[in-house]
């Protein structure tokens, strides 16, 4: 089989790497890929932007690609699946209607309410003064969310009413014309990535991300600074509840609305101190960096699962098999991220790190004149599998410490919440 992976982040590197572990997959293409997919055996980058649909179609036809796996939310929300499917191309990734579950917080809330899925109480507003009235009535802390893709910058967790009111002004000034104002929830955040063919839905092992840039979960929100999987915060009875109370009702609601959803349904959940799960958000794609922790533990060939989702035969697959242990992924970022940062720094030590039972996944990197250079905010994700969390953390940081680039930054406390 030939597979195209659309995207060029850490998630796409791990997808390409995992797909190539199956004998069935003879070649993977990445559009546009990164420095890691450029040097991955049997993988070839093509400099095509994720929103250049005609060039993607041309590549699929000229290379006789059997399966297209769409990584990021942008091409999904722009309708790449809808664009390719009429050409009889097998696509993993929801269509534009399905991707609305990530691109519109209010639409997602509506699905949750109709499906009876546990989530924070909220109101949706197209008018700043009505949103402010609601905030004044509810009081702080409270959460304000822009209704639209905002690259992780559309959510303000306001500890005071003043902050919440300011967030409303800011979001409306930024051309968002709808906001969701939501009850503040406390507890532990976990990520459940579930795979669906539109008929059946099955969760992968649970993961926990570390969204904030600073150690001890402080500072600005980022795309994610590290993750581990599985998390003991989700035991088998909670996993069962999440499937029956969140994933299945959401899929059923999507079906009722006539949406043929084939891809990842990613539930970002808050687990309250009393153990009750509530949905914070849904995403329409694999989480990054959660995927870099989850997929290395997957034993079932990934290509079988993604093909089954695209072909609506997921129910026929035996239960997913997993390797023992726990995987930790630490993200190395460019100094300054998530605000401004520099690119083009030479990265050294990757080969050394890779010998330490570690997998170095590239995110914002590029291959230039045989050197790997930084090319984004999140640069690398280093994953190791250990027999327990302490062992996995020690091995991962041992590998991380072998890698260098100017102004490299990473958190030293990935996994701290369960230690
Ligand atoms: P979202 O994009 O909706 O997941 O929000 C981004 C981050 O904001 C989440 O990962 C949480 O850390 C935080 N957050 C979102 N909603 C809430 C909420 N209702 N209560 C507390 N924190 C929240
Ligand atoms: N790591 C969070 C996300 O992928 O949205």
What do you see in this structure?
Strand 1, helix 1 and strand 2 form a beta-alpha-beta unit. The protein is 32% helix and 27% strand. The chain folds into 4 domains: 2-93, 3-Layer(aba) Sandwich (Rossmann fold); 121-183, ATP-grasp fold, A domain (Dna Ligase, domain 1); 188-316, ATP-grasp fold, B domain (D-amino Acid Aminotransferase, Chain A, domain 1); 326-409, Phosphoribosylglycinamide synthetase, C-terminal domain (Glycinamide Ribonucleotide Synthetase, Chain A, domain 4, Alpha-Beta Complex), CATH 3.90.600.10. The strands form 6 sheets. Strands 12, 15, 18, 19, 22 and 23 form a 6-stranded antiparallel sheet that branches. Strands 3-2-1-4-5 form a 5-stranded parallel sheet. A 4-stranded antiparallel sheet has the order 6-9-7-8, sandwiched between helices. The mean pLDDT is 97. The protein has helices at 10-19, 35-39, 53-62, 73-78, 80-84, 96-103, 105-115, 128-138, 161-173, 236-256, 290-294, 302-311, 350-354, 389-400, and strands spanning 2-7, 27-32, 43-45, 67-70, 91-92, 122-125, 142-146, 155-158, 179-183, 188-196, 201-203, 208-209, 212-214, 218-221, 226-229, 263-271, 277-283, 326-334, 358-362, 365-368, 371-374, 378-386, 408-409. The structure holds adenosine monophosphate and glycine. Adenosine monophosphate binds next to strand 7, strand 8, strand 9 and strand 17.
